[in-house]
């Protein structure tokens, strides 16, 4: 029996030492370089200060853009198959395809069925109607809706990681919303520009000749696009891009001349390099518009074929603009536009006030609990209070070790944990009192007290733990912070209030031969 007690005591000693190792950087700064753990407990937005942004993924607009992109792919597929389409027009969520050569209807149908099997194909009898009508199936549309939010989350994480924000929080909320919390960021403007930029990059030829028309009356197959701020030119470009940004493999900032500002060098994948090389080879001396999110960044003349798969975007960018542009191009375009629904900035002074108020509430609540246990249960209260202190140490150690974020609701969860931990000890002590009053020995009273209290402790804690899991699964932001602390606190409470205190009582009764217990 003595060996069992020593083993359990050693196990708790190791847990306490590990917790101290993880917690020390939170309270001691700077930590000695030889200390094995250097990361303090992460503080949430409400404690550290920063920016809170709530975005809505414009899924319907994304689906429309996807249909538009499919229309360009359909036009290219028919042209490559030497079938040719007179027009491919989007009407809502459908594509109306008119063939330039109606007698190739069978060939066109075969191409469309082979290249676009996920689309619903309807063939008309001819006449005034379009030759073919293509539409997304209900299943395909639902898959796009589900995928858009996941893709937006991943792209935003990549962008913000390269933005340099420490410990950001990016998570989905509901079916089409994304919460972004950036601790330590007080000026959200640059962050919003980086996050909200769709980053749809296109390379289009500037339309020429009579078919181009004018900005006021553009010709068929063309589109009028504005220039950058300060550039009042209205560019008439071909509607169909020759290459898009999804074919980029890299983008890096390059210093430009004194008057040119910074530029962004980019590289294409094999397919993009081939398309870009073919397009520039056949259009030497024409102007190529570099379009980002519907705005022409520049429209240089193609002086010679560009076959190396590399290019450059110039636009008199400053360093931050060029850096952010390279960032979003490397990480890809958002699958659907984002709409900013809510913006909050929490100043560091408010965070300090929250920490101070939370600390005061925690200290006052804990002190009252400790004093009550000492006054009402005497020696048993001392053991319960020691277990309570170890419990709090383990909670903070787990927060530091696993990288959990401590928020103001999390502090509330810790205060609640204090009450629940004491409640478990009270159940044990009251059972022990009952057994001693019935005339049992100290050892028998301790054994029976823990046995009878265990069911009530387990039932109450497991139901609360399940409630915490539900809060974490369906809650957001502060609710999740509270749920994490609650669930973690229940685990440490079960460990300390039941098992640690039992080790102490076993040591006192078995090893120290205690014949009375103060409760």
What does this 3D model show about the protein?
This protein is α+β, with helices and mostly antiparallel strands and 519 residues long. It folds into three domains: 207 residues, Multidrug efflux transporter AcrB transmembrane fold (Up-down Bundle), CATH 1.20.1640; 80 residues, Gyrase A, domain 2; 116 residues, Gyrase A, domain 2. It is 53% helix and 20% strand. A four-stranded antiparallel β-sheet has the order 7-8-2-18. Strands 3-4-6-5 form a four-stranded antiparallel β-sheet. Helix 1 packs antiparallel against helix 12 and helix 3 packs across helix 5. It is elongated and about 105 Å long.
Features:
single chain; 519 residues; alpha+beta; Multidrug efflux transporter AcrB transmembrane fold; Gyrase A, domain 2; 3 domains; 19 strands; elongated
Order of strands across the widest beta sheet?
Answer: 7-8-2-18
Beta-strand portion reads 15-25%
Largest sheet: 4 strands, antiparallel
The chain-level mean pLDDT equals 84
Remind me, CATH topology of the largest domain? Multidrug efflux transporter AcrB transmembrane fold
Q: Please tell me the total number of domains.
A: 3
How many helical elements? 12
Could you tell me how far the N terminus lies from the C terminus, measured between alpha carbons in angstroms?
A: 24 Å
DSSP strand tally? 19
- Tell me the CATH superfamily of the largest domain: Multidrug efflux transporter AcrB transmembrane domain
CATH architecture descriptor name of the largest domain? Up-down Bundle
Instruction: Estimate the global geometry from the Cα principal axes.
Output: elongated
Unreliable residue stretches: none
């Amino acid at each position: 029996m003595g060996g069992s007690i020593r083993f359990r005591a050693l196990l708790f000693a190791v847990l306490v030492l590990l917790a101290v190792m993880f917690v020390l950087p939170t309270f001691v700064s700077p930590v000695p370089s030889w200390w094995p753990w250097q990361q303090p407990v992460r503080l949430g937005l409400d404690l550290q200060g920063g920016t809170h942004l709530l975005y809505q993924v414009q899924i319907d607009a994304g689906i429309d853009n996807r249909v538009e992109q499919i229309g360009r792919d359909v036009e290219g597929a028919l042209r490559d198959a030497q079938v040719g389409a007179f027009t491919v027009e989007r009407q809502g969520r459908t594509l109306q395809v008119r063939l330039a050569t109606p007698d190739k209807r069978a060939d066109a149908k075969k191409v469309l069925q082979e290249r676009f099997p996920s689309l619903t194909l309807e063939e008309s009898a001819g006449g005034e109607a379009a030759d073919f009508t293509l539409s997304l199936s209900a299943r395909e549309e639902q898959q796009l809706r589900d995928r858009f939010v996941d893709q937006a989350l991943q792209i935003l994480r990549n962008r913000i990681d390269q933005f340099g924000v420490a410990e950001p929080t990016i998570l989905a909320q509901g079916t089409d919303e994304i919460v972004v919390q950036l601790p330590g960021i007080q000026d959200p403007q640059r962050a919003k520009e980086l996050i909200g930029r769709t980053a749809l990059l296109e390379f289009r030829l500037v339309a020429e000749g009579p078919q181009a028309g004018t900005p006021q009356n553009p010709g068929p197959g063309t589109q009028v696009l504005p220039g950058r701020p300060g550039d009042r030119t209205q560019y008439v470009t071909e509607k169909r891009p020759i290459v898009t940004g999804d074919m980029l493999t890299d983008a890096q900032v390059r210093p430009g001349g004194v008057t040119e500002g910074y530029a962004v060098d980019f590289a294409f994948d094999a397919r993009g390099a081939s398309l870009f090389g073919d397009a520039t080879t056949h259009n030497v001396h024409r102007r190529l518009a570099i379009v980002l999110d519907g705005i022409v960044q520049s429209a240089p003349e193609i002086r010679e074929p560009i076959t190396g798969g590399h290019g450059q975007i110039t636009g008199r960018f400053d360093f931050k603009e060029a850096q952010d542009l390279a960032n979003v191009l490397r990480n890809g375009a958002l699958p659907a536009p984002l709409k900013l629904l809510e913006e909050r900035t929490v100043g560091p002074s408010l965070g300090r006030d929250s920490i101070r108020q939370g600390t005061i509430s925690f200290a006052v609540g804990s002190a009252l609990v400790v004093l009550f246990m000492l006054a009402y249960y005497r020696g048993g209260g001392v053991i319960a209070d020691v277990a309570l202190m170890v419990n709090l140490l383990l909670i903070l150690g787990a927060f530091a070790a696993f990288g959990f974020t401590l928020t103001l609701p999390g502090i509330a969860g810790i205060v609640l944990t204090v009450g629940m931990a004491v409640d478990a000890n009270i159940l044990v002590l009251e059972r022990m009192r009952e057994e001693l009053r019935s005339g049992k020995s100290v050892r028998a009273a301790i054994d029976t007290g823990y046995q009878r209290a265990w069911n009530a402790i387990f039932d109450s804690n497991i139901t609360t733990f399940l409630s915490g899991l539900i809060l974490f699964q369906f809650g957001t932001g502060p609710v999740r912070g509270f749920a994490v602390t609650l669930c973690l606190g229940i685990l440490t409470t079960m460990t300390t209030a039941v098992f640690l205190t039992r080790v102490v009582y076993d040591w006192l009764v078995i090893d120290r031969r205690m014949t009375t217990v103060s409760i």
